[in-house]
Description:
Blueprint: H1 7-15, H2 41-59, E1 65-66, H3 77-83, E2 88-92, H4 93-97, E3 110-114, E4 117-124, H5 126-131, H6 137-168, H7 179-187, H8 219-225, H9 228-238, H10 248-254, H11 269-275, H12 282-285, H13 287-306, H14 309-317, H15 335-356, E5 363-368, E6 377-382, E7 385-390, E8 396-402, E9 407-408, H16 421-426, E10 435-437, H17 443-447, H18 452-461, E11 472-474, E12 495-499, H19 505-509, E13 525-530, E14 534-547, E15 553-567, E16 572-581, E17 587-597, E18 609-611, E19 626-638, E20 643-666, E21 669-687, E22 692-703
Parallel strand pairs: 1-2, 2-4
Antiparallel strand pairs: 3-4, 5-6, 6-7, 7-8, 8-9, 10-11, 12-17, 13-14, 14-15, 15-16, 16-22, 17-21, 18-19, 19-20, 20-21, 20-22
Helix pairs in contact: 13-15, 14-15
Amino acid sequence: VRIEFYQPVDQFLWKGGGAQKGQIELKTGGYYEPIHPIIPDDDKREQIWRMNETLGQLFGVRPRGMWLAERVWEPHLAKILAECGVEYVVVDDHHFKLVGLKDEDLRGYYITEEQGVTLKVFPIDMKLRYLVPFQSPAETLAYLRRVVQETVEGNACSENQEGRKRENGEDSESEGWGKEDRAVRGAGTRGLASVESLEREPLLVLDDDGEKLGAWPGTYEQVYERGWLEEFLSLLERESTWIRTVHFSEYLDRCPPLGRIYLPNAAYAEMLEWSGGFWRNFLIKYPESNNMHKKMLYVRDKVRRAGDKEAYRELLSAQCNDAYWHGVFGGLYLPHLRSAIFRHLIRAEVLAEKKLHQEKNFLFQEVVDLDRDGRPEVVISNACLNLYLDPAEGGTIFEIDYKPALHNLTDTLARRREAYHQKLLQLAGEGEGAEVEGAEVGPETTEGESGQEGKEGQASEGKEQVRTIHEIITVKEAGLDKFLFYDQCRNVCLRDHFLAPETGWEQFWRRAHHEEGAFWQKEYDFYIHELDREVVVSLSREGFLKKGGLEGEVCGPLLITKKIRLPEDGSAVHLEYELHNRSQRFLDTILGVEFHFALLSGYDVGGGAYFLPGRELEERQLASQGVEQEVEAVGVRSELLGLELELYLGQRAELWRFPIETVSQSEAGFERVYQSSCLVPRWKIELKPQELWRNQMRLEIKALGETGSKISDLKVWT
């Protein structure tokens, strides 16, 4: 619960008596819910400290345990968490099974250490996690009975074996557990005689997201309207002679650990499937996520040097985990989540810059390996704009931050193949509301069981049961399979394409076109000029064109040079292109320069719209598509963000425009999401041997209502 935002929860927990009477045990966590392993150690401590302070101020408690966001665990956390006063964390039984433990080994808690500093770790029971609240309370009760019976039978068998070993003079330590470990392990798994001694009872942990009790699809009806919660709580009261609910702290105080353990890098089983086995792999799978993460680290250095407390709070807010990954939830695919991260990061940066640059206007340039791939990126900025350039990736601009609006104008996402797209293809043609059942990861698929117990229990109850978000695939609109085509690289600005004359916009939109030149994703040479009141980044590459497909004629060499000029003041970027035919033959081609602008609202003209000065567009919304001839300039306007952007094209061009829309899954089903608008001005290039072609463009961003450049200014650039 994020107490900062939910005042009614404060009243429920405190004034209602839950925390005061000891009915509720409050745990700490990262205040802004970060994935702890991927943020700097000082920030780990600060996130926990802020949550501890809040819990202390509101409820007068010092939490002993911690909720680890998404249960993402890495071994180094043990020391840092313990040094923050955390006594225990709760992770999934899957973490423990990765090192060979079985269900019967997980009826208590374990202790781990890092550099001699210890931390207790409880395992969440995955079967309970899937039973509650998706199956009937009777099914949960039946499962608990089976656990008790298995524990009693297992202990009886174990005692018989120990007795035979003693009779034969065998040493029971030879089976892999040390004497002390076996002693504490056995303490938590002896047969049940009564409920008076916790030490004699098996422990099953249920610790999960509150959303499943009303926020996930179908759960509100299940939990409240159909009476699941009331029935479940009544069942616990009725069966209290053998089922006892207990707080983690109470159990810690009365029961020893089952043994020592060293858990590997892990998260819950579903998360590991989505990430490919290791949470940090999201930063590889999705370069846009890596970009956010590395920008966070980059901005953090500025904030640290500035020493601004408000800037640091904004930085911590930007560590909230939701936008950095994707699974059954929208996550990274949702533009408003990414936009919120960038908003906090840009605000943190602006606050830091106010202290670092005492003057109102400044000009800054830096060559830095921002994404940590071993190749340099270039950052240039003034008081209004940040531009992030990647010379190794086609000499492109992959981020444009407009600071007055705290918005990253290029915050888009590539269309990528996801494993679940195959399920969508299976649903093709079934129409809106189509469903297919089949758990992606659940107790059945993880444990290798048939999963029939839950289905039988469901039938025996004779009641409608809600399925987990992992068990239903719902299509929110028909025809989504027609949008399953994929980008080969990130969607950025200034990507240079050399196209055949017959290439159409729809081929390009679907990425089914042929590139005549190997420029669009290749490395460009670069150098930086810092003039009196302007920074100029020059990028160049020499290559060849292949006409007529793979077996066609090779032409060239062709040298392309582009210069990006950022003045000290204002929010305009000047873009200069030069093509030089360095061959002794005539060269002709089509140059298309790709731009992407992300303004959040694609389907509503009120949220965002195109405009072409002097022309009326039939469709103006940013998710529209079309081709315009003889275009001098194009603009996009966002009432939502309070800004407009104008791209002056210099020489008149044919202009393609189309949306980038991804197809992703969420807890509500498969959905199409507008990510950005793609603009591709195209010029016909005809060059004699050694001839040059030049063009100058300008990108200008301003707040709505500001006076900017007019179309008549184009004569300066043509």
